[in-house]
Amino acid sequence: SYELTQPLTLSVSPGQTARITCSGDKLGEKYASWYQQRPGQSPVLVIYQDTKRPSGIPERFSGSISGNTATLTISGTQAMDEADYYCQAWDSSIVLFGGGTKLSVL
Amino acid sequence: EVQLVESGGGLVQPGRSLRLSCAASGFTFDDYAMHWVRQAPGRGLEWVSGITWNSRSTGYADSVKGRFTISRDNAKNSLYLQMSSLRSEDTALYYCAKDLRRVLDHRGTFDIWGQGTMVTVSS
Predict the structure, then answer these.
(1) What is the dihedral of CA A8, A100, A93, B117, to 10 degrees?
(2) How do strand B10-12 and strand B117-121 relate by DSSP bridges?
(3) Is residue B98 less than 8 Å (CB to CB) from chain A?
(4) Is B35 in CB contact (< 8 Å) with chain A?
(5) How far is it, in rounded angstroms, from Cα B108 to Cα A34?
(6) Taking Cα atoms as reference points, which of A94, A98, A37, A36 lies closest to residue A69?
(7) How many Cβ atoms from other residues are within 10 Å of residue A41's Cβ?
(8) Concatenated DSSP letters of A17-65
(9) Is any Cβ of chain A less than 8 angstroms from the Cβ of B50?
(10) pLDDT tens sequence for chain A (106 residues)
């Protein structure tokens, strides 16, 4: 079955750039979305269709894709960006989520 | 204000049934596909089911296929999830989510989420 693989954790210092990866077979032929989930809150869409940013999402959030890997980049990471991040894609009419990456801003 | 409000969760015994509801407001409900996504305590997100804007097509995760049924009533701006033969592994917070598109396809993504309703399956 199809899987999306993310690193479990990532730590960055405030102001640094955080790059969260999501890998899956032929992911470059699909569309990847990214969601932010702060503790105790519902997920929020931050990137869709690989690179598009919904209105209201800060410009420091960007997405890219190359080969089998999609990447969520957070430039100038802030303390408020500390959260779990999930990638998502479709495969054979099924929606899949990555296991999630816990981003710590230390 | 765009809003999704889930209801219907609770404590239920294994093997029993439960029906979740999601009330939508602030957008044209029948213009979009809708989904249910769940999150077990301390775990990640898991897609459960989706339905097109006109109910003509539905999709289910393998883990719930044959036990859960998704439906919608566009006249009432409401989405439903009928859950039967519930198992302990169905224990989770169930989110209702709006798709950006009318149909279920690879460009679909979830742009609006509700606060969730908790389902606990235990004897």
Answers:
(1) 140
(2) parallel
(3) no
(4) yes
(5) 12
(6) A98
(7) 13
(8) -EEEEEE-TTGGGS--EEEEE-TTS--EEEEBTTTB--TTS-TTEEEEE
(9) yes
(10) 889 999 999 999 999 999 999 999 999 888 999 999 999 999 999 999 999 999 999 999 999 999 999 999 999 999 999 999 999 999 988 999 999 999 999 9
Average pLDDT, chain A: 96
* Residue type, position A101, single letter: T
pLDDT tens digits, one per residue of B63-77:
999 999 999 999 999
Q: In whole angstroms, give the CA distance from residue B23 to residue B57.
A: 20
Strands B3-7 and B18-25: what pairing? antiparallel
Closest CB from A42, A88, A94 relative to B113: A42
Interior angle at CA B82, CA B80 and CA B85, nearest 5: 160
| R_g (Cα) of chain B, nearest Å | 13
Question: Cβ distance B20 to B72 under 8 Å?
Answer: no
Question: Residue B63 is encoded by which pair of tokens?
Answer: 């883990």
**A75-95 per-position pLDDT tens digit:** 999 999 999 999 999 998 899
Contact A95 B59 (CB under 8 A): yes
